[in-house]
């Protein structure tokens, strides 16, 4: 049931003709209240797409009644005209729903630098508004898919309340569409400030730690809405825990469905001086094309792990670093460890454990391999 | 004639059996004087290979009589034993040449994390010493090749003196071998300090601006030797100009022969507030897998240029940035410019011109596309 699993939400997904394939491409998620508290996290790219610029303003109020999403076009780098298109989309959605435009967030995904076909999008919004249903979550999840092979949805049940969610593609994951869009809903009663803190914390340890190719989208948007329809008011820690569970579930689904990927790689950096150091070292590995191609080739090339973290400023002594790949400590003290021939990389799951011996903090970054299929899909996207 | 084009240098390249193919794999370059001034630039990776650690100490003297180089093994992340191997190589080379070990630099390239087969390497050095010849430059250039399809050599003739050079692979270019090794020679009379300044400047605007995949090697080494055999003492500016010409020539050869590449891409960032900003923005493009796969697919996907520079802290206003690809200004003011269909990307050479309108500095970064062949070669390297 995805975003419509919690009480008081309706959703829809329709085909408006934005995608030449005729697949669903417009989704609508509506919060019927009673409360309309909301929170969001957006891309930090300095070229935020028009819908990000719009939604950032809307979400500044901490209130939201609806999110309209489209695939088939990112509406990024489209100038003032593109912003007008987003504004018109919000106005049209609001009119269909009897709301004000400021109650409506917009999210888009697709090719950058192309105007949206508004003559198709706006009728699509009208159709979506008519199709809104309390069991419409799965349709909405399908309508935001781009190169995703399956819809990504989640439901986290708690005592008398729940969190629902849907996601598409990935900002840095299935990135030919260069966007991760996520909508989370809950029927718990949560004020906006608590929701924002919980959402920031949840994405920080889940979606933001998935780094498939280091490419930061212009459109990444994660929106959370809380309506209190369950009548339950959980504590802040409970909200944070449930949102983290939902966001982590979606993040792992994004990882598993990343374009062209053949491996899910969890890079854990342990005994770092700071969490920041652990993240920096982990990301350096996740963004190292030589390591990622080696793993695609089932090659436990641990030298490329050291070469990657050797470019960072994380605190460590080079002759104290250990690297363990799928349980085999192939590098000890920055030098040759157990035989690399003992590492079995034939499965999809790979764990790389880097021990910096420089402190007591740790973090995990999730990434994928760099495959021939990745290059193929991303070289053929817009043409 | 490469490194033996200037007077007073001898070189050799022999097959010692380090490569299973039987191809040449040990090179020796000897400076017969009268002077032995030298300079070098090394990788900044925090896991410098054993030969880098050794050569950095040797070059601290500003003097050098010989460089011994091997392909077929990087001798990186091999611990104290690996350093002993490098030391033994320098000692053995020095003994063959009647020098001290401190007169001999060592450079290695190949797989990280594997010990060198010293029982093959040392006899190879003996053979190379016997084969030293005043016309041995081409043999040396061939012996340092790894996946290079052609040797890279250069000769820059000046009035009564010259600079010769050879290079292999690329630190960040043909990086499955993860190393760029360069030896430059000149028969000009140049003191060590002048040579170091000239070399640092020359590599800074050439070899260090080639960034094919952002992967920094553990072994990158650029050595320059000046012996004064020509009797000419050029001015510092003349030395800098000639070294820059030689290093640029080699850098462009590395770019053209990058593993699996189908495009040579020059990214020029203009009107930046600082050269640093221009380099940061250029490198962000050069390291963006989505842009590189798009260019492999002949797709002028300028949105990926903006998405890349949008992740940097370079000074610019997003609505003032222009992007021109192969002469077509596809993006104006951060929005849609001339039709992308007008861009012809079918040739090997691609120019991307980013105008930040934030100052008056500029810099060019050279890179390659991300191709299926790149993934194939780099996934199959060590196994």
TrEMBL record, chains A, B:
CDD domains: OAT. It is found in: Cytoplasm. Transmembrane segments: none annotated. The record marks 109-110 as: Involved in the stabilization of negative charge on the oxyanion by the formation of the oxyanion hole. The record marks 178-179 as: Cleavage. GO terms for molecular function: L-glutamate N-acetyltransferase activity; L-glutamate N-acetyltransferase activity, acting on acetyl-L-ornithine as donor. Its main location: cytoplasm. Pathway: Amino-acid biosynthesis; L-arginine biosynthesis; L-ornithine and N-acetyl-L-glutamate from L-glutamate and N(2)-acetyl-L-ornithine (cyclic): step 1/1; Amino-acid biosynthesis; L-arginine biosynthesis; N(2)-acetyl-L-ornithine from L-glutamate: step 1/4. It catalyses: L-glutamate + acetyl-CoA = N-acetyl-L-glutamate + CoA + H(+); N(2)-acetyl-L-ornithine + L-glutamate = N-acetyl-L-glutamate + L-ornithine. Its EC number is 2.3.1.35, 2.3.1.1. The active site is at 179 (nucleophile). Signal peptide: none annotated. It holds the Pfam family ArgJ. Coiled coil: none annotated. Catalyzes two activities which are involved in the cyclic version of arginine biosynthesis: the synthesis of N-acetylglutamate from glutamate and acetyl-CoA as the acetyl donor, and of ornithine by transacetylation between N(2)-acetylornithine and glutamate. Heterotetramer of two alpha and two beta chains. Belongs to the ArgJ family. This is Arginine biosynthesis bifunctional protein ArgJ. The gene is argJ.
């Amino acid at each position: 049931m995805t975003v419509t699993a919690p009480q008081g939400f309706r959703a829809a997904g329709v085909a408006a003709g934005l995608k030449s394939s005729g697949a669903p491409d417009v989704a609508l998620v509506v919060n019927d209240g009673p409360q309309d508290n909301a929170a969001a996290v957006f891309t930090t790219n300095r070229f935020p797409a028009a819908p990000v610029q719009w939604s950032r303003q809307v979400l500044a109020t901490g209130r939201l009644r609806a999110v309209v999403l489209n695939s088939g076009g990112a509406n990024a780098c489209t100038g003032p005209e593109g912003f007008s298109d987003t504004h018109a989309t919000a106005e049209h959605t609001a009119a269909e729903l009897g709301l004000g435009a400021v109650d409506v967030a917009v999210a888009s995904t697709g090719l950058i630098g192309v105007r949206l076909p508004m003559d198709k999008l706006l009728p699509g919004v009208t159709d979506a508004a008519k199709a809104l249903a309390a069991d419409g979550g799965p349709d909405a999840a399908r309508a935001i898919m781009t190169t995703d092979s399956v819809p990504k949805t989640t439901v986290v049940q708690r005592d008398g309340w729940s969190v629902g969610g849907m996601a598409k593609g990935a900002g840095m994951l299935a990135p030919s569409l260069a966007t991760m869009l996520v909508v989370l809903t809950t029927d718990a009663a949560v004020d906006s400030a608590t929701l924002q803190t919980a959402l920031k914390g949840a994405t920080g340890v889940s979606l933001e730690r998935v780094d498939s190719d280091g490419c930061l989208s212009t459109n990444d948007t994660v929106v959370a809405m809380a309506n209190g329809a369950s009548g339950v008011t959980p504590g802040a820690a409970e909200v944070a825990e449930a949102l983290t569970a939902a966001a982590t579930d979606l993040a792992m689904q994004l990882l598993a469905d990343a374009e062209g990927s053949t491996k899910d790689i969890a890079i854990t950096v342990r005994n770092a001086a700071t969490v920041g150091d652990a993240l920096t070292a982990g990301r350096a590995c996740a963004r190292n094309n030589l390591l990622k191609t080696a793993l695609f080739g089932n090659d436990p090339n641990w030298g490329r792990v050291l070469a990657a973290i050797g470019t960072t400023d994380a605190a460590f002594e080079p002759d104290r670093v250990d690297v363990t790949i799928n349980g085999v400590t192939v590098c000890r003290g920055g030098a040759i460890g157990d035989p690399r021939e003992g590492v079995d990389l034939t499965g999809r799951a790979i764990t790389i454990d880097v021990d910096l011996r420089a402190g007591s903090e740790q973090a995990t970054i999730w990434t994928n391999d760099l495959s021939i299929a990745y290059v193929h899909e991303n070289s053929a996207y817009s043409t």
